[in-house]
Amino acid sequence: MILYGIPTCDTCKKALKALKAAGKEVTFHDVRATPMTEAEIATIVIEFGSRAINSQSTTYRAFNDYLKASEPEAQIAAQPTVMKRPVIRDGDQWYLGWDSATEAALTA
User: Fold this and answer.
1) Cα(48)–Cα(43) distance, rounded to whole angstroms?
2) What is the pTM for the complete model shown?
């Protein structure tokens, strides 16, 4: 299982803690320290489309008009922290965000 996020994100911390408490082996991928590959970004965008972008974030609001009009792949490649977090890959399954449904599916 891979959790894509940043170490200062409270939601990522909460998800990581819950997954580890459930006995899951989780690899944390800090998207700021280790940029994602083009293939990883493309897969996330294929899975979630524009939902992968946190358009309410200060990062997104700081984008210029060109970046705001760009495809999600370009936005994530330019500034990985604009991605909604966490993104979790569990085998072939992908999850976006950390809510009760995601927690139930991954910690059961």
Assistant:
1) 9
2) 0.93
> Could you count the other beta carbons within 10 Å of the beta carbon of residue 59?
17
Beta pairing class for 93-96 and 87-90 = antiparallel
Q: Can you say how many angstroms the Cα of residue 16 is from the centroid of all Cα atoms in its chain? A: 13
Q: Which domains does the chain have, with CATH numbers?
A: 2-107 (3.40.30.10)
User: DSSP character for 63?
Assistant: S
β-bridge pairing 87-90 and 2-5: antiparallel
**Rg (the chain; Cα; Å):** 14
pLDDT in tens, 17-66: 999 999 999 999 999 999 999 999 999 999 999 999 999 999 999 999 99
